[in-house]
Amino acid sequence: MDNSICQGYEDKIQSLEEEIKLLAEKYEDSQQESTFFSDEEILMSIKSFQREFQGGSKGHESLSDLKAQLESLETDLSFLMKFTGIQFTSHSKKTVEKTRNRTVRKHRLSGNCHSLSFQLEFQLLEMQNKESVSAVITDLSIIMEPVEDSDVSKFVSSIEEHGNLLTFFRSLSSYAEWYEHRRCTFLHFK
C-alpha cells in the first residue's frame, strides 16, 4: 500500500512539473512575441521622448538626429516598397532554442507583392564563432494565394527545399509585376 501511495504522489508531482514547464514556455513565448505599433502609438512615443529631453540642448541634438534617421529609414523603406512592390503586413518571431553559441528563432511573415499575397514561416539558426555569426534558414514554408500557373507551385516547392529567400523575393517581385500586367490586359479585352 505504501508503494501505491508513493507512486500516486510521484505521478502527481510529475504532472505538476509538466504543467509548470508548459506554463513557463507559454510565458516565455508571450514575452518574446514581437509587438506592432500603430502610427499613433509611434507619434505618442516620439512626443513623450521630446518632453523628456526638452531641458538640455544635448537632448535636442540627439532628438533631431533620431528624427533625421527615422525619416531617412522611412524614405528608404518607401523606395524599396515602390521598387520591389513587396509590402510586409505582419511579422512575428519566437525564440525556440537558445544556447551560448546557438540560437533558433521561428519567424512568420505575411505581405503582398503587387496583387499577390504570401505568407512565410521559417526557422533561422544563428551560430556564433569567436569572430563571426552565421545564419541558416531551415524549415521554410511558403503559402501563396492560388494562381493558375503550375510552374509557380513547382518554383515555390524548389525554394522551400533549398531555403533561398533572396531568390524567392527577387522572383516574386518580377512574377507579380508581370502577373498584374497580364491581369490588367485581360480585363481590358473583356
Automatic annotation (TrEMBL):
Q: What Pfam families does its record include?
A: CENP-P (PF13096)
Q: Does the keyword Zinc apply?
A: no
Lineage: superkingdom: Eukaryota
> InterPro entries, per this entry?
CENP-P
The answer to keyword Coiled coil applying to this record is yes
Q: Which residues form a coiled coil?
A: 6-33
Q: Name one GO biological process term.
A: CENP-A containing chromatin assembly
Alphabetical UniProt keywords:
Coiled coil
One GO CC annotation, please?
chromosome, centromeric region
User: What's the protein called, per UniProt?
Assistant: CENPP protein
- Tell me the classification of the organism that encodes this protein: Eukaryota, Metazoa, Chordata, Craniata, Vertebrata
